[in-house]
Amino acid sequence: MIDHITVTVRRLATSIDFYKVALKPLGYVEKVRHGRTIGLGMDDGTPRADFYISPTTDTSATTETESSTPLTHIAFRARSQEEVQAFYEAALAAGGRDNGAPGFRDYHPGYYAAFVLDPDGNNVEAVVEWSQPETPQRPR
Q1: Which of 17, 25, 60, 136 shows the smallest number of beta carbons within 10 Å?
Q2: pTM
Q3: Would you say domain 5-55+71-128 falls under CATH 3.40.630.30?
């Protein structure tokens, strides 16, 4: 099992602002700071964070959109199609770029997701996973 993940970013303040807005519909809030690293997690009354944003130490980039560090794909679980839609709208409003509007995907039955690119070009997804009991089934 994965306990937490850290995404490295070039523009820390921009990315913190982006993720706070984009992940709010999924129940995420700022939970902890360790130096310049920020941890976000579910608003559950505990200090536990499972998603961290940290500034990159990659100094080889010559522009804001160039990096020798590979970009990341991360998927956040949503509880409903409405949460996927709210994530997508919030992420775009926060400066994200469309990378796949909300909808069913052919990965397997019931996979409903939306994709955005964060300010560093990381692919961020919100998904109602097929394995969740409350997941609506694909219309026939």
Answers
A1: 60
A2: 0.76
A3: no
